[in-house]
Amino acid sequence: MKWFWGLGIAFFLSGCASLNSQTNQEKSVTSFPLATPEDAKKLTQPLFCGVQDRATAHLLTQGNYYAGLTGEHRQIVCHKLHKLYQQDKGPWQAGWLLAYSFSGEKSCITHEQRRSIVQSLQDQSVLNHQLSWLNVSYIQTLDTIDTLKARNGALSDKLTEKDTLHQQLQQENALLKSQIQALKAIEKNLNKRIGDDAQPR
User: Fold this and answer.
1) Count of domains for the chain
2) Residue at 41 is within a domain
3) What is the domain extent for residue 23?
4) How large is the greatest C-alpha to C-alpha distance in the chain, in angstroms?
5) From CA 106, how far away is CA 23, in angstroms rounded?
6) What confidence tier does 72 reach under pLDDT thresholds 50, 70, 90?
7) How far apart are CA 64 and CA 2, in angstroms?
8) What pLDDT is recorded for position 43?
């Protein structure tokens, strides 16, 4: 996801942009959880040409901060952010940060939950066109992961079937070998008896 943060910040270095539609332009007063209070200095807002640009840049900075968390701090903050997003009328930014910053290992949400959050944000039209573009791209990436997982599962099933068939053939081969050895022993015994009977008494 490192490429995402660099790409996202680059969008807003190129000029002014709106963060939300007119119905979502109120300033957020939500305080998002931190691993430690000292981490607040990592989230200073860079100067852009508009308030909404700074809000978007701050969102990206906050996302980068969350993505860099490790160990116990990562789990604790992830659960706090998830709880915040699940609240009635919880801030959409909490869902966005949760979906983008807590992918991969040590995530408190599943792949399916992440996909659902991202799609929900897209359906609500709360994102500006830059974040919406990133969202569409992320949805496509998550869908590709699903496709690859399904394909991998199908290939694993085929491999399991072939392994089972191979084991069955090995067992049948071992049985045939033992039957051949038994037939050879019977043939040898019969030949010996025929030889003994052919000798004069």
Assistant:
1) 1
2) yes
3) 2-146
4) 121
5) 35
6) confident
7) 8
8) 67
